[in-house]
Amino acid sequence: MSSTSAPTPLIGVIVCSSRQPRVCPQIAALVTSTIENWTSTSSDSPPRAKLQLIDLAVWNLPMFDEPTIPSQIKNYCDYAQPHTRAWSQEIQKYAGFIFILPQYNWGYPAVIKNAIDYLFNEWRAKPAMIVSYGGHGGTKSAGQLRQVLDGVNMNVAETMPALAFPDRTVLVKAAKGDDLNLGEESRIWTEERKDIYKAFEDLMALVSKTL
Ligand SMILES: Cc1cc2nc3c(=O)[nH]c(=O)nc-3n(C[C@H](O)[C@H](O)[C@H](O)COP(=O)(O)O)c2cc1C
């Protein structure tokens, strides 16, 4: 018998650091497992989504090199560069995005601004949530990215979880890209994991309005 239920929305989890070594993939794994393993106490039907990683280090886009302003492009075939056409097709696939965002010098890494600037209509009206991390949680980085996402007309979830490295030992480990032991058994960021799920609920409420 065929099912009439709506398809599960596909959400892109964007790894916004490209340096080697780095901890961003570990933070992305923590966010993904928090969402996937959350046991809702407040809802019988918690939001469902398929989460898929988009690693900017793997995409390795060159510095923006399109001749036309992306907001003027209505069809991805009209981009001049093959890497832009591929990036456009990738971003078109998703109903919404989770940005996993470090803070660099009180701002966000250049690699994510470059990746955003390549496109416009692919981002427009799509819901997003931002999870930042850093010595103090990366809130300056998150605030700046939020402004940019507003600029490409995305709908950003109000809840913006900020993961502060608990002490200098973890900060030094993160800088070296060491294993931060963020697995299921870890007690780190217990409260912040609630924020992650709240932000995800915000995100999925925005996604449901677009389907
Ligand atoms: C270029 C650079 C600048 C940084 N600036 C900040 C900063 O402004 N605030 C902060 O809390 N941490 C800062 N850090 C430390 C990062 O939070 C930490 O290295 C983290 O591991 C970066 O994420 P990544 O490993 O995924 O790249 C900076 C790190 C780098 C590489």
TrEMBL record:
InterPro entries: Flavoprotein-like_sf, FMN_Rdtase-like_dom, NAD(P)H-dep_reductase. GO terms for molecular function: FMN binding; oxidoreductase activity. GO terms for cellular component: cytosol. Residues 11-158 form the NADPH-dependent FMN reductase-like domain. Pfam families: FMN_red. This is NADPH-dependent FMN reductase-like domain-containing protein.
